[in-house]
Amino acid sequence: MAVQSSVVTRDVEKIADQTGNIYESVVVISKRARQIAVNIKEELNNKLAEFATTVDNLEEVFENREQIEISKFYERMPKPTTTATEEFIEEKLNFRLRGEGDTRQEL
Fold first, then answer.
1. Which superkingdom does the taxonomy of this entry point to (predicted)?
2. 3-state SS string over the chain?
């Protein structure tokens, strides 16, 4: 999946096609984006936990290039909403709207 990190104009009708309602589509996308954001945050925190120190020295801050590179990598990643929107448009998300007997699974 090639996720673009820049701003892209989306066809609202294409987004609304899967649910029949643009607002329901946005809810599905936003829930998936939250899931992605939580996963990314946990992953980043686990990687940065290795560098956690109890004493902050000014010298240690400037010397820790690996931590800076990890942070820059995560800053350059596409936003969770962009990734979730791409997944939704490419029909890679399984979801079920409440109150319906749909065969799709809820996020």
1. Bacteria
2. CCCCCCCCCCCHHHHHHCCCCHHHHHHHHHHHHHHHHHHHHHHHHHHHHCCCCCCCCHHHHHHCHHHHHHHHHHHHCCCHHHHHHHHHHCCCCCCCCCCCCCCCCCC
